[in-house]
Amino acid sequence: MIEAPARPIDHIVVHSALNDGTRVSLRCITPADEERLRTGIATLSAESRYLRFFSPAPMLPDAVIKRLVDVDGHDHIGWGAICTDCDDWPAIGAVHAVRYADGPAGEFSIAVLDAFQGKGLARMMTAALLIQCLAEDLLTLEIHMLSENAAARRLVKSLGAVWTSESAGVAEYALGVANGIASLRADPDAPGVEDVFHALTRL
Fold first, then answer.
1. Is 106 left (phi over 0), alpha (psi -120 to 50) or beta?
2. Per residue in 129-140, pLDDT tens?
3. Which residues pair with 85 in a beta bridge?
């Protein structure tokens, strides 16, 4: 059972390692991360940018970047990761939950730089995000992804997300935050996720 998260959660930095041993740090996104996030998005391959933003354009409009870093910890929750073993890397991953109209539901999105995909980072960032979502009464997340995004589909299904519809090449899933946390907590092969739980909760 998940107890109350450690406080203040938005000031905590989680130090851990990916499945291949690469050391990483996770923390809440702030407006000061604008350039780091902008550079990270530009570093994504065209395919990864297309799968995340539905466009392969190398640069997103400034207004989009500013929205991504406009994180308040309640209506917009965002976590990012950097590689502490690497020199001069931008943000290597980011995950967001944006609330709908001051209710208990919102939208989930995630991106990981190509060089760090498949190493457990997405699950680590998602664990941090969901723990904060639960603390802020953001209880259900909708996920919109391109139907061809097999990696994202595997991730959300492993979290217990339920398919709701598919149209014009876009699939939609609904994720119960508590169910997602339980699925991550039960994973015996994710030491990085365990580090997140240890840092952010009183387990």
1. beta
2. 999 999 999 999
3. none
d(Cα 194, Cα 29) in Å, to the nearest integer?
21
DSSP state letter for 4: P
The set of residues, in sequence order, having a beta carbon less than 8 Å from that of 125 and lying 6+ positions away, is 26, 79, 80, 81, 93, 94, 95, 110, 112
46 CB-near residues (< 8 Å, 6+ apart): 56, 58
Q: What are phi and psi of 44, to 5 degrees?
A: -60, 145
Residue 2 lies in a domain: no
| Domain count along the chain | 1
Q: What is the pLDDT of residues 172-189, one digit of tens each?
A: 999 999 999 999 999 888
Tracing tokens 């870093």 back to the chain, one arrives at 69
pLDDT at 188: 80
For residue 7, pLDDT beyond 70: no
What distance in Å separates the CA atoms of residue 178 and residue 133, rounded to the nearest whole number?
A: 9
- Whichever domain contains 97, its CATH number is 3.40.630.30
Is 4 within a domain? no
Domain contains 78: yes
**pTM given for the model:** 0.92
Enclosing domain of residue 53: 9-200
Task: Answer yes or no: is 59 within a domain.
Answer: yes
